[in-house]
Amino acid sequence: LLAAADKYLFTNEQKAALLGIVGGECGWIPQEESAQYSDPDRLCEIFQSTFKNNKELATEYSNWLRGGKGDKEEFFDFVYDTCNNGRKVGNIQPGDGGKYFGRGFLQLTGRSNYERYARLSGFPIDKNPNILIDDIAASAEIACIYFLDRVPQSVVPTAHPDYFYAAKKAVGNNSPDIAARKLAYYEHFYGHRTPEGFQYAAP
């Protein structure tokens, strides 16, 4: 990950942001998104536009794998269906959810993201999504390319902590616990805390 960061990212703020956000997403090891949730409330929190706080529906999809209710592809086909969360990540047809669920250092999700970053990186993750898990170097490069592509150009790469907050927003929505974890990791790697009372103003 650091080798890729040295190739694509050139400031301490960018590199610390990458390490902090990746740590919060996957613990610095490329992983697949989990299809196993034991708590219906957590499902409602993570997939708000899918479950719409419907605890009965969330209970049906809780303990999906351990309860033998189905495989991970079936779970993600539902939560990332085009009628649910899938619209936000560019899923357009049945099966997209089960194919393009979260993977890699940044949990890249959705057909449109896989197609875009296959094109920008040259790695065919749209045809073989597991490259994001099996090829650590490719996954790291894609994470860096994502930062360069999604963080607004108006955000100064040396701005602390603005660059971190812009990158965190670009990666996607977080539950409060994950957002706090990313900030703590960022501050650790950067070596300075966020100024007390800081409020990020998105460009």
Percent helix, as a range, is: 40-55%
Structural class: mainly alpha
What best-fitting shape do the alpha-carbon axes yield?
globular
Q: How much is the average pLDDT?
A: 95
Strand order of the largest sheet: 1-2
| Largest sheet features | 2 strands, antiparallel
Subunit arrangement of the protein: single chain
Low-confidence stretches: none
Distance between the termini: 28 Å
| CA radius of gyration | 17 Å
What pattern of helices and strands is seen along the backbone? HHEHHHHHEHHHHH
Q: Could you give the count of β-strands? A: 2
Strand content: under 5%
| Total number of helices | 12
Structure description:
The chain is mostly helical and 203 residues long. It is built from twelve helices and two strands, in the order ααβαααααβααααα. It has helices at residues 2-8, 12-26, 40-46, 48-51, 55-61, 72-79, 96-99, 111-121, 131-134, 136-150, 162-171, 176-190, and strands at residues 31-32, 103-104. Helix 1 (2-8) runs parallel beside helix 10 (136-150) and helix 3 (40-46) packs across helix 5 (55-61).
